[in-house]
TrEMBL record:
Record Pfam families: Cation_ATPase, Cation_ATPase_C, Cation_ATPase_N, E1-E2_ATPase
Localization annotation: Cell inner membrane
Protein's UniProt name: Magnesium-transporting ATPase, P-type 1
Species annotation: Streptomyces cavourensis
Record-linked NCBIfam families: ATPase_P-type
InterPro entries attached to this UniProt entry: ATPase_P-typ_cation-transptr_C, ATPase_P-typ_cation-transptr_N, ATPase_P-typ_cyto_dom_N, ATPase_P-typ_P_site, ATPase_P-typ_TM_dom_sf, ATPase_P-typ_transduc_dom_A_sf, ATPase_P-type_domA, HAD-like_sf
Keywords from the UniProt entry: ATP-binding, Cell inner membrane, Cell membrane, Magnesium, Membrane, Nucleotide-binding, Phosphoprotein, Translocase, Transmembrane, Transmembrane helix
Domain Cation-transporting P-type ATPase N-terminal: from-to ranges: 1-71
Record's catalysed reaction(s): Mg(2+)(out) + ATP + H2O = Mg(2+)(in) + ADP + phosphate + H(+); ATP + H2O = ADP + phosphate + H(+)
Length: 903
């Protein structure tokens, strides 16, 4: 890594900044310092992209084939359904895009740059737009500033940077210049380099001067969301629909040739049966599926946006949410509030001592005031809050501040000099900071120092952040205090801090677990910190004695504070987390993809993760067959957001994360995710119910139609009659998008498995075919002595029976429901009743003869009632048998109803 002098030389710059003319030349050469923008998808492209859905593509092909064989009615209906589906999906995704449109609020708009008018002129500081910055520019950084480009620090005074948006680390990181090469940094990653700051970071404290080394598309911020990173594989919805689609496509491709060959061989019919063969293929197709899917998902997405502020940008992502069985997330801001609190204050013998907290609060208070820091560090703020709650402010107010030495990343300590009441002529130095740094400044023997370090390590292993506190009395003097005075201190004790769990996290984790969603934590924090937060929330971590979960040492530095993190992890002081629960990134690097898939399946927490680690872990879980969701809000989360089946981010996430995510939450809250998961399962449950009922009914009709075509001297149903029948059934099926799914559908991840569907529709389809074949016998008996056109009467009889059986199926074949749920009214029952009325009355109206149907004798209706009664009994019996074979459905539904009632 280059030193400050070397980087300035390589950029042909200097501490006095660039000349204006040179900066303009570089701006023309490198371009503006802006991120690559994502252009909105135009309407025509969005509409055409909707045709990539397998069912929609199949319907489009069937519509075109129908037009080729002059079946214009069928062609028009099918093409209209395709157009409606594409319009609905395009409109909903356009609405989601408009809802998530926002300014790129992560990148600063102006920056303080040092430039010269001419080579001999004095350098001047001025504010310039961030877009005008170029490599080689020297800029000033202060508290609250957003880092406008990738820079290398030239000078710093207590500079700390919050780079969690890039790395996921919750604590600020100290930055300082590199004046001489440091071999220890040779193997460290870029984010571990103390002299480098990256676009997307923010200055939390201190000030500094830095030189820009990369701008625009050359920054790491831009590289994290380039075009290759945005590519993702097939989602759970895509895989499910494609599996079912190809199963049906095989049936549809086989049906027309079979119909043509059978009619040619047995009845001597030629190509005149081609329209009928196409109609049979259309009859097997759930042509309303694209409309049902789009309507159900759009309703769920609209309801989520209206009631919970959750925006679904990609409609299939709502189904993916319902299918998620593994949710990966960072702990900061989700499981914890990103706000530490004091857990304990102990002396050197590990005994509680309120004096330790009082001295730490004195150091934080007077360092903040005398050093003129803009705001207290998070750890200092926690110390001050704890002292106020402990009613220690009265004692602190009696002290008078004299001087302050703010936190320095090299010293890793902060010191306040105070005048104690009743101690004239004496100043007291109060120092706090990283444990090792404070102990180095204390007058301790080697054994005592090692004992205290071991004590600190044990506490760090339990996931606590530590501040060491020491003090010393010095004769009062008028001169300034320097770091050289921080010697010969007396050790006071340790202040232990822990992250605060989010109020709703524990309950939300329990609800997600009951819904079959496993939560895994992927964080950049220290293993102990992550493990402690998860154990506090009861996230399934196992504890045992002396079992290490991995190693990893690090230093967390912040303004006025620091802490040494030891190796290993634990759930509490003296206990460690077992290997199967916490894994560090160092171990991940040693595993192959197959090994990582096995480890990820049983691991709860991954610590010290880089963006690449997160993406690899998510991909390994997907490869193991899980449907994964990932919740992230920073640039460091982009690879994992793209690797997951569904990417989730809060509304206040960085702009590029919002653009990459499929679902945007109103806030970073697990409760909102639970509501989104429920909405996804609600929509998916309706889609699954539609598929089961429709495919089983369609399969039965096709089997009966093929059988009748071989038995009868005429076509069992005319193409126009097939078309009208499908239209009636399709109109009734729209009710599935508005139905309330069974409670059991909300209990488990909603997965559409083609093998399960094939088994279901085969059994109930054969039962439907048996009812149709029984109707043939009824028609033969009823029409035996009837006068008139037997062919038209047969068509009318079968038309009526088909619609009535489909209405029965819609009402009775809703598995996994309690008796009360099945008796409840709703749009589905109303649609089924309407379908039955049309089936009975249509052949009797003037429209019947136009479609080639005639009136039926009363005897037929009596016999048909008997067939339908037996069919209803058979359906009920078969459904009960199915439920007995799948008892988990009803049990899980009852469990869920109890859970929801309790909530």
């Amino acid at each position: 890594m280059k030193t400050s002098l070397e980087i300035l030389r390589s950029l042909d710059s200097g501490p006095r900044g660039l000349v204006e003319a040179r900066a303009e030349e570089r701006l023309a050469r490198f371009g503006e310092n802006v991120l690559p923008a994502w252009r909105p998808v135009p309407w025509p492209r969005r509409f055409v992209r909707s045709l990539r859905d397998p069912f929609t593509s199949v319907l489009l092909c069937l519509g075109l084939v129908s037009a080729v064989v002059s079946a214009w009615g069928t062609a028009c209906v099918i093409l209209a359904l395709v157009a409606v589906s594409c319009l609905l999906r395009s409109a909903e995704e356009h609405r989601a895009d408009r809802s998530t449109a926002a300014l790129r609020d992560l990148v600063a708009t102006t920056a303080t740059v040092v430039r010269r008018v001419s080579p001999d002129a004095a350098p001047l500081e001025r504010e310039v737009p961030v877009a005008d910055l170029v490599p080689g520019d020297v800029i000033r950084l202060g508290p609250g500033d957003l880092v406008p480009a990738d820079v290398q620090v030239l000078r710093a005074g207590g500079l700390t940077v919050h780079q969690s948006a890039l790395t996921g680390e919750s604590a600020p990181v100290a930055k300082h210049p590199l004046d001489t090469p440091d071999p220890a940094l040779a193997g460290a990653g870029p984010f571990a380099q103390p002299q480098l700051c990256f676009q997307g970071s923010s200055v939390t404290s201190g000030s500094g001067t830095a030189v820009i080394v990369a701008t625009g598309g050359a920054t790491r911020f831009a590289a994290a969301h380039d075009g290759r990173a945005r590519q993702r594989g097939a989602s759970a919805f895509d895989r499910s629909v494609q599996g079912i689609s190809w199963t049906l496509i095989r049936f549809m491709l086989l049906t027309p040739p079979l119909v043509l060959m059978a009619n040619a061989a047995l009845r001597g019919r030629g190509l005149e049966t081609l329209p009928f063969a196409v109609a049979v293929a259309v009859g097997l197709t759930p042509e309303m599926l694209p409309v049902i899917v789009t309507t159900a998902l759009a309703r769920g997405a609209s309801r989520l946006a209206r009631t919970s502020g959750v925006i679904v940008k990609r409609l299939p992502a709502l189904h993916d949410l319902g299918a998620v069985d593994v949710l990966c997330l960072d702990k900061t801001g989700t499981l914890t509030e990103d706000r530490p609190v004091v857990a304990a204050a102990v002396d050197g013998a590990d005994r509680p001592d309120p004096e330790v907290l009082r001295w730490a609060a004195l150091s934080a208070l007077w360092t903040l005031q005398l050093a003129e820091l803009p705001a207290p560090d998070a750890l200092d703020e926690a110390v001050l809050d704890a002292a106020e709650e402990a009613e220690g402010w009265g004692a602190c107010a009696a002290y008078e501040g004299v001087a302050a030495l703010p936190f320095d990343p090299v010293r890793r300590v902060a010191t306040a000099v105070v005048r104690r009441p009743g101690r004239l002529g004496v100043h007291t130095l109060v120092t706090k900071g990283a444990v090792e740094a404070v102990l180095e400044r204390c007058a301790l023997g080697g054994d005592e120092r090692e004992r205290l370090l071991a004590l600190a390590d044990r506490k760090a292993e339990s996931g606590l952040r530590l501040l060491a506190v020491a003090r010393a009395d010095r004769p009062a003097r008028p001169g300034a205090y320097t770091p050289a005075d921080e010697r010969g201190l007396t050790f006071v004790g340790l202040v232990a801090l822990r992250d605060v769990p989010a109020p709703s996290a524990a309950e939300a984790l329990g609800v997600l677990a009951r819904r079959g969603v496993t939560v895994k934590v992927l964080t950049g924090d220290h293993p102990g910190t992550a493990a402690r937060a998860c154990a506090d929330l009861g996230l399934g971590l196992r504890t045992g004695a002396g079992t290490s979960a991995g190693t990893g040492a690090g230093t967390d530095g912040a303004a006025g504070s620091g802490s040494k993190a030891g190796s290993g992890t634990g759930a509490d002081a003296g206990t460690a987390i077992e290997y199967g629960d916490v894994v560090t990134a160092e171990l991940v690097d040693t595993l192959s993809d197959a090994e990582l898939a096995r480890v990820a399946d049983r691991t709860t927490v991954f610590a010290r993760c880089t963006p690449e680690h997160k993406a690899r872990i998510v991909s390994a879980l997907r490869a193991a067959g899980h449907t994964t969701g990932f919740l992230g809000d920073g640039v460091n989360d982009l690879p994992a957001l793209h690797a997951a089946d569904v990417g989730i981010c809060p509304r206040n996430a960085v702009d590029v994360a919002r653009e990459a995510a499929d679902v945007v939450l109103a806030e970073k809250d697990l409760t909102a995710i639970d509501r989104a998961v429920l909405a996804g399962r609600h929509s998916s449950g309706n889609i699954a119910t539609y598929l089961r009922i429709t495919l089983s009914s369609n399969l039965g009709n096709v089997i009966a139609m093929l059988t009748a075509g071989l038995m009868l001297p005429f076509l069992p149903m005319l193409p126009a009659q097939v078309l009208v029948q499908n239209l009636c059934f399709d109109a009734a099926q729209l009710a599935f998008a508005f139905d309330r799914p069974a409670a059991s559908a909300l209990r488990r991840p909603a997965v559409l498995r083609s093998r399960d569907f094939l088994r279901f529709i085969t059994g109930f389809g054969l039962l439907n075919a048996a009812a149709d074949l029984a109707t043939f016998g009824v028609l033969a008996l009823a029409l035996h002595n009837a006068a008139g056109d037997g062919e038209a009467a047969f068509h009318a009889g079968w038309f009526t029976e088909n619609l009535l059986t489909q209405a029965l199926v819609m009402v009775l074949l809703r598995t996994g429901r309690s008796a009360a749920e099945r008796r409840a009214g709703g749009p589905l029952r109303a649609a089924a009743a309407g379908l039955a009325v049309v089936g009975v009355l249509l052949p009797l109206t003037p429209v019947g003869p136009l479609l080639g149907m005639s009136a039926l004798p009363p005897l037929y209706y009596l016999l048909l009632g008997s067939v339908l009664g037996l069919y209803a009994v058979g359906l009920t019996s078969a459904r009960r048998r199915y439920e007995r074979r799948h008892p988990a459905d009803d049990e899980s539904g009852r469990d869920l109803r109890k859970t929801d009632a309790g909530r």
